[in-house]
Protein: C2 domain-containing protein
Amino acid sequence: MRAYRGGGGGELFEVAEYDLGEPMQFLFVRVVKAQDFPSKDITGSLDPYVEVRVGNYKGVTQHFEKNQSPEWNTVFAFAKERMQSSILDVVVKDKDILKDDFMS
Structure:
């Protein structure tokens, strides 16, 4: 077992190196921060979060209310053997009541 520190709260999680005797490989994606996002809402507020996708698997950061320079400091681990795609999609969205807006 190897221990990895992830997330903004300093939580510790373990990742097994072997599963039934077979070596396991992971893709680790770290979402750190963004700076000076322009506001897209009529109200001028911005509640950004990030979606990270690899095939059918998705990781989502927390959203920050009224923050144009959020710091997520979040790590996602995707097991290589379960990935159904070699494409990594990273999308930033603005959380809204009716429908979340695409940012970048």
The longest strand covers residues 71-79. The two ends are 36 Å apart (CA to CA). The chain has one domain: 2-102.
